[in-house]
Amino acid sequence: MSKIESFTTGLDGNRIFGIFELPExxxxxxxxxxxxxxxxxxxxxxxxxxxxxxxxxxxxxxxxRFDFRGSGDxxxxxxxxxxxxxxxxxxxxxxxxxxxxxxxxKLALIGYSMGGMVASLLAGREREFDAVLLWSPVIxxxxxxxxxxxxxxxxxKYKDILGLKLGPxxxxxxxxxxxxxxxxxxxxxxMIIHGSxxxxxxxxxxxxxxxxxxxxxxxxxxxxxxxxxxxxxEELFEVSExxxxxxxx
Length: 249
Description:
single chain; Rossmann fold; 35% helix; two-stranded antiparallel sheet; Putative hydrolase of the alpha/beta superfamily; Hydrolase_4; globular
């Protein structure tokens, strides 16, 4: 069993919604902060974050999963969202964790897809994390944000992306930073997991980056971006749990 505490933080009309999940026994724990991807929320497709959270909690690690502003149950507008607004949201959550009496001082990040870009920026700027785990991360962000579907003409106010209004700040902010370069400022334990058949975030550039930098890299052979097969997702969880427990316990 675990203790689940929902929370909001921020001013009315602009609040972040999230969930702390804590081990049932003990007074203090290491914490993993989970960052979701583009058009996602704190549960993530096929419930990846709750499922991994329950595995970690059994090992004595607390987790926090939350919705970036403009996504999921958090307030704010999706059209105002960009990687840099999400970076500010993540910093706010990290600060909140550090204030908790049950936080034992050890802190890790998981970033999935665009959340992997946010985690890379956060780790590169803050640096004081005990582990960083990236799932299928958008760290080669120049190529990703240059896509035509995110480009705006002078007269466009928003784009229709999956029934959501995407604003021009998304591409502008996405091209204003280099996540792979900023991640090089982080020198702690770092692991990247990537599906070899990822249709959304190309596998080869991320694999080459990891190889050239000497980053621990695990390929899930045949897996797509969402790891939508039992053996793929079980491998994702097994490798993730082992890495995080090795660094935090």
